[in-house]
Amino acid sequence: MNLSELGKWILNFLNSDPFLDWFFTTLPGLFLWLLSAWGSKKPLLSMPVWPTAAYGNKQEKMLHVRSYLTQIVGLLTMIWSLLLAFTTTNHQQRINLYGAGLCILLVLASLVVIVVELKS
Amino acid sequence: MFTDRRYTGQREETGLGLYDYNARYYDPYLNRFIQADSIVPGAASGSGGGAATLGYDSNTRLTPLTVHLGEFVAQVNAENREVLQFGAFFQWGSKTRQEHNVPMGSANPQALNRYSYALNSPLRYVDPTGHFVALSVILVSGAIGGICSAGGTLIAQIAQGNGTLAERVQGVDWGDVGIAAGVGFVAGAAAPVVATTTAAAALLGATANVVQYGLTQWSNNESVTPGGVAVNAAVGGITGGFITGPFNPQPGGKAIMVAGQQFTVRTAAAENAGMQIWYGLLGGGELMRSFTSGIVDNWDWEQQYEEIAR
Q1: I want to staple B248 with a disulfide (CB 3.0 to 4.6 A). Which of A4, A9, A59, B57 is the partner?
Q2: Cβ contact (<8 Å) for B23 and A46?
Q3: Could you say which of B127, B142, B172 is where a domain stops?
Q4: What pTM was computed for the model?
Q5: Which domain holds residue B113?
Q6: How far apart are CA A96 and CA A92, in angstroms?
Q7: Are residues B270 and B146 part of one domain?
Q8: CA geometry: angle at A11 spanning A7 and A16, to 5°?
């Protein structure tokens, strides 16, 4: 395989359905993960203030619960789209299964949020 | 005592009679820290924007700390003059901030009090429900919502498209993306005001998604079906309720008030951290709302069924 053939192969690969489908279905997961991870680190507070600030009131606590859950959903979305890229055979099937997985993930995560919110 | 940890978890230096708050020591008999806080709050703290702390805001030049009475009075007078001339700190443009020293730097003791950030004039300037704060929060969250919603729709369309990347991009319906941006902006802007509970956030997401679905169908000359409305309401409700969630303008604020006056200087940092998480979640919610409904709307149920049956 010479260089131009390699270039063609790379171009074909980048434009192939599995790659494009994987890339654009994993992208929202990546964004979701980054956006929810953004700022969920501890603020620069001295130690006794942090837990008080974070868990002293319920809405503040729920912010963190949502943030962590959303990060998990984002990561699972990425894993799911990667799995589909290897296991499915056509574009439409991939998108459909991806959508189904996404919906199941979102429903499960929202159930967890409801349970935590009602129990805390 | 079985432990040297005090009420909120700080360690007591029994020999010294001081509490170790990590950054500095606190003297329980004086009811004061024995050192100054290394984080110097600016007047903008608590306004929802970044606290104008040292090293954080490059536009901020804090008035140097002074212990000389005459110098201090001169600084306060200068600050008062500037406030009369230009208004409170948070009303200044960045140019004015650069040209003048910040009126409420560390030299002004009022700035160290969380509740006097508007020169101790809360009736005149700002509280968390105040005009200026609400406006800035609304614009920022609206912008985040609009961008993320448009991004979600765009990615969904490219992911669903057929052929090479160029063909997929050519097939993008930019009208739909524009509608998503508009609806996302309105939903994002409404969120701090409307979505104060999980149920309200879910309702807002559902409404936004149904409106987006209706506008998209209308712009593409397609009919609005009950099934489509139901699916979009469900997706919007779930993403709105689960990810975006309720907005609290002062996360942590109350807790710190209970913990004691000595923490008040740091409240702005906690508040900003809470705001940041919420903004991130709002963006994530809007992104997933648009993206998921974009994916689900074009679900080809029959083909899927046939493929599974085959």
Answers
A1: A59
A2: yes
A3: B127
A4: 0.63
A5: 42-127
A6: 6
A7: yes
A8: 145
